[in-house]
Specification:
The complex is a heterodimer of chains A (309) and B (296). In chain A, 69% of the residues lie in helices and 1% in strands. By secondary structure, chain A is mostly helical. The longest helix of chain B has 34 residues. The chains are: A mainly alpha (309), B mainly alpha (296). Chain B: It comes from Microbacterium betulae.
Chain lengths: 309, 296
């Protein structure tokens, strides 16, 4: 997998005047500008615009300007919104700690030469190729209260009392979905970390060994610095994917029970398409946009600064 | 960095033919055991899905999920093809992926080339705007996207689906390819220019071939992502004959309950094309990951 890290090598000096260069660049830019502007930038901005209207989404109805009413309702009357916001934030934080940590440990372990290394790598990566919506269907079956693996296994080892309606209980539902997301997400981050580990300078590692540095000292002094760019990439991709979580929730609980597994991406969708409140949906989308930008723009700034160097 | 100066140190740390000390072997064995157990744990859901996919309804209700069936119901796979309308939905997914993925890569490569090698005024700002696009969740724009497609008369059409797929796919690819193209030495381009090569020729014959590992890695990623995409497809596609693979999963949950055997069979079938692409391109994928992931 490749990265979002910007790279510079060498500085170019060209004699062509700037405007001439733009006309040269334009043919290469036009398809992107059209597609990106029309089908990405415009829908994003339009979602923000819609958040100031009340609209059913039906063509026969005209959107009605309501100012910031949607936001007032969102922040003061919409309890589901606060649940969704909290769940999205929790999801981001947990994703940064648990699957990312497991992925790093696996990559460090599987970077050594050992029997069955490629097979193990494959086992950890395979869940990542399944569509999230199918992973959701799989795990809904695993969590089935009577016939599912989890409760049957608990009963099998004499812990039948622990059996739960994992997806039907507001206390456990979000955590249960999160377990499925760990299972699916670890492999991708692991591959990134494995790629990053290839850049650990072997000569530095050997020099540290000769100097008698312990495994931990070598990890701290050589591996960690070399992994820094990879870690940044993994972190940013993890944040983005956590904010986007949608398929797993739709497929496993649909946001229930009692909205306990609601997340921003799904709540925006539900308000627009199920409740026919495109204005409220737009307001939720705008909050999601702001949260996303607040998390990723610092990264962008960092990345651009790295490129300057 | 000189390799010759380092070679002795490298040789000293691992003398040829010498085994590691016994103490370190215990650590190695412990680590291996821990990894093997974790791998088994990771494999378990796949194993359970497989066991489910070969059981009939009676076995599903009586046998534990992990036990083999009393009679192997391979016919579940035939039912899966039937209920999930596999040939139609897989055909739709394949069509979308085979149009979208190469076209998207070409468009992304062209833009990355212009941004990285032509360096007009405003290139950096444009790169920044595109980079942000690679990070916004698609769900933000789904409502307006629905309206846009409706106005264009392209709702419920596979061609219509390709357009937003392209828009949401290219920003990340541009970002990655930009890094690659910036890494190409200027001398290469300059000598080609002295030989009279046009900008397009430089793009086609120098820059694109050099980016092959990155393009291959992106091809795999994008194929997997396109094949598995759900949110946009479920919003923009209506009629069943237009469904892609991820939408077909819902065919297995009817009013009377879910056909778990055929559904799990379908889940396995749905991943086969992705696994094929992954295995075919694995070599390039790893190269691309190595070359691309970590040049910061």
């Amino acid at each position: 997998m490749a990265t979002v890290t910007l790279v510079t090598q060498g500085r170019t000096r060209r004699r062509t005047p700037p405007n001439h260069r733009l006309s040269r660049a334009l043919p290469y830019l036009v398809p992107t500008l059209v597609l990106y502007g029309w089908f990405l930038v415009y829908p994003m901005l339009d979602a923000v615009r819609l958040s100031f209207f009340e609209w059913s989404g039906f063509r026969t109805d005209d959107p009605r300007w309501v100012g910031i009413d949607n936001y007032v309702r969102l922040f003061t009357q919409d309890a589901v919104f606060w649940t969704a916001l909290r769940n999205s934030v929790v999801w981001v934080v947990l994703s940064l700690v648990i699957p990312t940590g497991i992925a790093l440990l696996l990559a460090l372990g599987l970077n050594r030469r050992m029997v069955g290394r490629n097979l193990m790598r494959a086992v950890f990566y395979i869940p990542a190729v399944f569509a999230s919506i199918t992973v959701a269907a799989m795990w809904r079956w695993i969590y089935n209260p009577t016939l599912g693996f989890v409760n049957q296994a608990l009963a099998g080892v004499g812990l039948g009392d622990w059996a739960q309606s994992w997806l039907g209980d507001p206390r456990f539902a979000l955590a249960s979905i999160f377990v499925a997301s760990i299972w699916q997400g670890v492999g991708f981050s692991m591959v990134l970390f494995l790629a990053g580990l290839q850049t650990v300078p072997a000569e530095l590692m050997d020099a540290a060994k000769v100097d008698g540095a312990s495994t931990w000292q070598r990890f701290r002094a050589v591996t960690v610095p070399a992994l820094r760019p990879t870690t940044v990439v993994v972190v940013i991709l993890t944040i983005i994917n956590a904010l986007k979580v949608f398929d797993l929730v739709v497929g496993m609980t649909g946001g229930g029970p009692a909205q306990s597994t609601q997340v921003l991406a799904l709540w925006s969708y539900t308000q627009s398409f199920a409740n026919h409140q495109f204005g409220m949906g737009g307001a939720v989308a705008t909050v999601l946009l702001i949260v996303t930008l607040a998390l990723v723009i610092p990264y962008m700034a960092w990345s651009m600064r790295e490129e300057e160097r | 960095m000189s390799t010759t100066a380092i070679a002795p140190a490298h040789a000293a740390s691992r003398p040829a033919g010498t085994r590691r000390s016994p103490r370190r072997d215990y650590v190695g064995i412990g680590l291996w055991a821990a990894l093997a157990v974790t791998a088994l744990l990771w494999f378990l859901p796949l194993f359970l899905m497989f066991m489910t996919s070969v059981k009939g309804p009676a076995d599903l209700n009586t046998l534990p999920m992990w036990s083999p069936p009393s009679t192997w119901e391979w016919s579940n796979y035939a039912s899966a093809v039937d209920i999930g309308d596999f040939w139609v939905t897989a055909g739709n997914s394949l069509l979308v992926a085979l149009v979208k993925v190469p076209l998207g890569l070409l468009i992304a490569a062209a833009t990355a080339f212009a941004l990285a090698r032509i360096r007009f005024r405003g290139a950096r700002a444009l790169l920044g705007i595109i980079a942000i696009g690679s990070m916004v969740p698609v769900q933000i724009g789904l409502g307006p996207l629905f309206s846009t497609m409706l106005e264009l008369g392209m709702l419920d059409s596979l061609f219509g689906l390709v357009l937003p797929y392209l828009a949401f796919g290219i920003p990340y690819q541009i970002f990655v390819l930009y890094g690659f193209f910036r890494g190409i030495p200027d001398e290469l381009e300059e000598s080609a220019r002295l030989d009279g090569a046009s900008t397009f020729r430089i793009f086609r014959q120098i820059v694109l071939p050099l980016a092959k590992p990155a393009l291959a890695a992106l091809f795999v990623l994008d194929f997997v992502a396109t094949w598995n995409e759900y949110a946009m497809a479920t919003t923009l596609l209506r009629t069943q004959s237009n469904w892609t693979i991820p939408l077909a999963v819902q065919s297995f949950s009817a009013q009377h309950g879910t056909d778990y055997g055929p559904m799990n069979a379908f889940i396995f079938l749905s991943a086969v094309p992705v696994l094929i692409v992954y295995l075919l391109f694995q070599r390039y994928f790893v190269q691309g990951a190595l070359a691309g992931a970590v040049k910061g």
